Amino acid sequence: LRFRAASFLETVVLGTDIPVASSNVAVTVEYDIKSPVGANLMTDAFSQNISFSITSTQVSFRLAGNSSNILLTHNVADTAIRHRYTLEYDGSTTVSLSVDGVFQSSATYAGRFRGVRNIIDSSSATGLDLYGFKVIYAGVTYDYQPTLSGGTGTILSDAGSAGNDGTLTNFTGTANSWWV
After folding, report:
1. pLDDT, tens digit, for every residue of 118-140?
2. From the centroid of its chain, how far is CA 155?
């Protein structure tokens, strides 16, 4: 699913918020970012950005309501190609990062993950191609797979156990040109 830069205001609005509180949660995003300046990968249930920026040596992650970034280092050779980034929060003190299934680093975090309302915030600073977005929380899997669209339409299907489809908002241009 192709997202252009911020001026297009593209987002995916979920049918209902993914209700995450202060328990264990895993968020996996698979994408090809068009430039390593980062993106607001989601907004939380209070419509605040959850930012996620990637450089050649680290991931900067900030949950809504926090005043500072969590920095997680990685050694991914090329951040400008498709990778699967997984952030896991133990619900207590630790956030860890894996890239393509390989553990990279962890950091102390004592905040709270407050759910997901939108996938890719409409103010995202960069374009990207989204290939998958998954949240696992409290035994429920939300698994958004753009390939399920068959390259048509305005619905991002949830193949997980929740069945919580998202609606593409502000995608313009030639019909279905946003599917990659």
Report:
1. 777 655 556 778 888 888 888 88
2. 17
SS3 8: helix
Question: What number of other Cβ atoms are within 10 A of residue 133's Cβ?
Answer: 25
Buried b (16+ CB within 10 A) or exposed e, 105-121: bbbebeebbbbbbbbbb
Q: How many residues are recorded in the chain?
A: 180
pTM attached to this predicted model: 0.82
What is the residue-wise DSSP string for 47-104? S-EEEEEE-SSEEEEE-TT-SS-EEEE---S-TTS-EEEEEEE-SSSEEEEEETTEEE
Residue type, 167: T
Closest to 10 measured CA to CA, from 128, 114, 152, 116: 128
SS3 category, 22: coil
Q: What is the rounded CA–CA span in Å between residue 179 and residue 105?
A: 33
